[in-house]
């Protein structure tokens, strides 16, 4: 019996991390149109850290939220328009109402893996507006399976129609995915999903392990375009899913064409697993730190691998970009 898997394409959101949030309106338009033509169910768009996140601390977007969402909306006729929302970056009054008015269909409200409490108001508001609402637990490798279940149950109570855990650091091995997805599937009534990063080269394997363990939602990006070493490669994921008897509703040739277009029009460099990406994954560091770590390490002449190891020891998470410079300065001081 064929099983349906719901795919969210995060190329135009997670991919923004890979270019320091500098995607332009033309790139958003051409890829949104191609993804729509391929039948991608949900196309996620925005700053890498989500709605309202453009700032000096995490990075300024080339294009503002309104322009990004309006541009994507014009080029999506079949696909749903999705956004990533972290309470604290995005407020309901300033950001979320405006996004829904533009025509956003799917809102994924995210928190650090142990802080689901902060998502209550945003999830509730989205449900009140009649839009699809999902809960997202970021940096999920930092919490045990039992803690993830507890936090996910809060989101379910708040109105989330599905829960996605993110391997934000690309730190998982298949055994980790199996343990945590199985626990979530058994502990929740709503569907469970997985968002992979490829720092250890496991994004596709981990995604397939997730669905074998009961997940029904997967994220992926064209050519793996995303933070750090990138995400699960959507064109490969669709091929493997079809090969193993799953259906997604996505046209295979269409997603191959969309990915070819993205490589030419959207990404300056196709993601690869670099040495520092491996150290980042092993250290459990947020993939979105990659650009910041590279730039600051080069400026002060320190080995970025040492920076990642120290960030991992300090259990730094997204939104704490200011600690990168602190770590670098400590390394400079110790070198003297």
Automatic annotation (TrEMBL):
Source taxon at top rank = Bacteria
The question of whether rRNA-binding is a record keyword is answered with: no
Any one GO molecular-function label of the UniProt entry: 2-isopropylmalate synthase activity
The positions annotated as site (Transition state stabilizer) read: 13
Q: Where is the Pyruvate carboxyltransferase domain?
A: 5-256
So what does this thing catalyse? Answer: (S)-4-hydroxy-2-oxopentanoate = acetaldehyde + pyruvate
Which residues take part in binding Mn(2+)?
14, 195, 197
Please name the Pfam families in this protein's record: DmpG_comm, HMGL-like
Record key words, sorted: Aromatic hydrocarbons catabolism, Lyase, Manganese, Metal-binding
- Catalytic center at which residues? 17
Enzyme category, top tier: lyase
Q: Which GO terms describe its biological process?
A: L-leucine biosynthetic process
Annotated substrate binding sites: 13-14, 168, 195
Q: What is its EC number?
A: 4.1.3.39
What family is reported? Belongs to the 4-hydroxy-2-oxovalerate aldolase family.
Cite the PANTHER family for this sequence.
2-ISOPROPYLMALATE SYNTHASE 1, CHLOROPLASTIC-RELATED, HOMOCITRATE SYNTHASE-RELATED
Q: Under which name does UniProt file this protein?
A: 4-hydroxy-2-oxovalerate aldolase
Q: Which organism encodes this protein?
A: Pedobacter frigidisoli
Q: Write the gene name.
A: dmpG
């Amino acid at each position: 019996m064929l099983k349906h898997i719901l795919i969210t394409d995060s190329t135009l959101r997670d991919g923004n991390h890979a270019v320091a949030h500098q995607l332009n309106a033309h790139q958003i338009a051409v890829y949104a149109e191609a993804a729509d033509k391929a039948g991608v169910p949900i196309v996620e768009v925005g700053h890498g850290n989500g709605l309202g996140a453009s700032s000096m601390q995490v990075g300024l977007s080339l294009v503002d939220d309104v322009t990004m969402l309006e541009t994507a909306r014009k080029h999506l006729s079949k696909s749903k328009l999705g956004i990533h929302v972290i309470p604290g970056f995005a407020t309901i009054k300033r950001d979320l109402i405006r996004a829904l008015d533009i025509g956003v269909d799917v809102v994924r409200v995210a928190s650090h893996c142990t802080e689901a409490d902060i998502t209550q108001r945003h999830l509730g508001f989205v449900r009140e507006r009649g839009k699809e609402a999902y809960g997202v637990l970021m940096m999920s490798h930092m919490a045990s399976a039992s803690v993830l279940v507890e936090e996910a149950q809060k989101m379910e109570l708040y109105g989330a129609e599905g829960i996605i855990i993110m391997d934000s650091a690309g730190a998982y091995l298949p055994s980790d995915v199996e343990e945590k997805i199985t626990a979530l599937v058994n502990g929740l009534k709503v569907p469970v999903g997985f968002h992979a990063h490829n720092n250890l080269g496991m994004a596709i394997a981990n995604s397939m392990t997730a669905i074998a363990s009961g997940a029904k939602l997967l994220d992926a990006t064209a050519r793996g375009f995303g933070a750090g070493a990138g995400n699960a490669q959507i064109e490969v994921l669709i091929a493997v899913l079809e090969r193993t008897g799953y259906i997604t509703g996505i046209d295979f040739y269409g997603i191959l064409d969309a990915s070819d277009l993205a490589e030419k029009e959207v990404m300056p460099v196709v993601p690869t697993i670099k040495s520092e990406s491996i150290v980042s994954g092993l250290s459990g560091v947020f993939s979105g730190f990659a650009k910041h770590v590279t730039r600051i390490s080069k400026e002060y002449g320190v080995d970025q691998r040492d920076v990642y190891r120290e960030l991992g020891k300090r259990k730094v998470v997204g939104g704490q970009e200011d600690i990168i410079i602190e770590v670098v300065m400590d390394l400079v001081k110790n070198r003297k």
